Please model this.
Amino acid sequence: MNNSTNLPNPDDWAAEQVQRLRDQRPYRNLSADCPDATVDDAYALQKAFVDALIDAGDWGSVVGYKAALTAPPAQQMMGVDHPVIGVLFGGGERVAQRAVPTDRPVMLETELGFRLRHDITAEQTEEEVGTSVQSVLPVIELAAPNLEQRPNAVDLIASNSATYAFIPGAPVAAPWHDTTTRPDLDQVAIRLLQENDMLHADQAGSIMQGQWHALSWLLNEVMGMGYPLRADHLLMTGSIGALHPGKPGHYRAEYGSLGSIDFTL
Model:
């Protein structure tokens, strides 16, 4: 962390953010309190917030991690030149077959998720990362920045990168011990529809330099931040296609050979 006298005490910051989450109030913007805060500062406060959520128990245990700001235009808007990460909690999981409850405005994102076959403690390469995957699945993220003011990157990171809820689809087993047998997930065609209106259509490989690159980047970034990677953890590699405000209605997300997710807000 830097030496700014304005930087919040991590424990105090975390306690306040947890209380704001419980009260359904927006989070504080770190940049408003400390304009000189760096990305490293923001991750240190994110870690304190995550630890406080674990201790509080309100949102269950850590069940995985996600990439955010994977698209260059989103990075430019937030003032960074790289993606960022957030931590997923079990309390954020939603069931697709039911009306999905929310207590704040959300943005809908279509993503791919990967379940880990085993604990990971060593750096992952793009070429071999598939051997660490137990299954791949479609996922809908319900992202909620939930900040008092329009955020920049440090605001987003410090508040756990807009992490709120997610809807996992049915997993597809991934017996890819041989790297030559893994599928080209970048070619998976994805569509999001609300009622009869198509909101977007894109291919899974539109993020970063493709899905396997995004997954290896995410795993290595998570390890670099000191977070553990456990068997069955879910890794979400980032939004495929545009983000859309979550308005009341029925939605269908189609993921080609990986299946679909139907849900209602």
Remarks:
- DSSP finds six helices and twelve strands in the chain.
- The mean pLDDT is 92.
